Amino acid sequence: MVLKDNYDVKDLKLAETGRQRIEWAAREMPVLKLIRERFEKEKPFEGVRIAGCLHITTETGNLGLTLQAGGADLIFCASNPLSTQDDVAAALVEYGIPTNSIKGEDDKTYYKHISTALDHNPHLTVDDGADLVTKMHTRRSDIIGDVIGGTEETTTGVIRLRSMENGGALKYPIIAVNDAMTKHFFDNRYGTGQSTLDGIIRATNVLLAGKKLVVAGYGWCGRGVASRARGMGANIIVTEIDPLKALEAVMDGFLVMPMEEAARVGDIFVTVTGDINVLDRRHFNLMKDGAILSNSGHFNVEIDIPSLAEDAVSKRTVREFVDEYKMSDGRRIYVLGEGRLINLAAAEGHPASVMDMSFANQALCLEYMVKNKGKIKTRVYPVPEDIDKEIARLKLRAMDVNIDVLTPEQVKYLASWEQGT
Ligand SMILES: NC(=O)c1ccc[n+]([C@@H]2O[C@H](COP(=O)([O-])OP(=O)(O)OC[C@H]3O[C@@H](n4cnc5c(N)ncnc54)[C@H](O)[C@@H]3O)[C@@H](O)[C@H]2O)c1
Asked: Alpha helices, DSSP H only, in 70-191?
């Protein structure tokens, strides 16, 4: 195959390993496989240019191949400087999908890669965190006219896009894939739950059993991290700002307290809030010697690393993905993966089985955008309910799980109000 020249990866020689790992992930992505087989026949994306700004992982590789099978002219860039799997990026280039991402790239290269994706002049955008969309709106508004619509993968991106919509800045429709039940119920909870611990363990090889693990944020991701860490024997402390979520955490059996209290006792900290400076100077000053800080929220703003660096007397990297900050009183604080999402920085991100549903939503929502071109208003939309339900049905079928069907009597009963005791 003649490679296009609009790619930038670490090393094309890694492609064979990437290809094998993409194939391995495919085993756990049966729903996407069914969609790919249909796309191969129907070619819904013939003549459609797509720019995808996603974590370049084996699962994203499978999404790319699915869209390509549907006829898409696709380009990829990374949605985080530390989340790229370089072998997958190389394999995608060899599959004919120009990919622009190198693990550990600096911010300048990161944004240059986004610019290259925008140079593709896309009809559809697939974003994870809304950096591609915001860059297009602020710097490349000349190409917005050709865009049919886009999709957004994560909570933080959806929040940014909703504020663009509310501020009248959004210029084309976006489907909030994150908000599909077959996405956040599973991906954010079980995917982030498991892979965040995987990232912490791979980075540190620390034993979780018996440790005090503080989870900041008891949303979809936080619930997953807390329940999985409890399963490994950690004592969980939850911090929240929302009384309902805090109450839920209490009734789920976790200790809940403000971060200023948790900071004094925690051994390991995980932020998953989507918020800024959740761990800051106030907390660093209270932490025990040896405290380990990690983040699994989308951006690297949840731990105030600039303040930590300012207050520390020295900093050194003690293992891959582990930076030690020594404080003037001799305490050492360890930050994992530069405060970037630890499941992607130090591990492999979500397991393929949950990304199967997230990316099935992506594929079907992009198809929906093309089919409804010109009919959708400029807004942030939920995933159509029939797409969500269909994905749940297909996933159950793939897992060989059958469920009951309402009898006609039950349908009638559930639709009526007359019958009581
Ligand atoms: N690591 C990954 O692979 C991955 C996967 C999915 C989502 N995410 C990201 O993780 C973050 C959380 O996503 P979610 O779906 O759980 O969102 P969510 O909205 O369900 O939960 C976030 C929770 O954090 C709480 N919170 C906000 N500020 C806080 C603070 N200062 N202290 C304590 N709690 C606070 C909120 O009340 C909320 O309950 C987002 O940035 C999202 O984009 C990461």
From this structure: 86-94, 107-119, 131-139, 155-166, 181-183
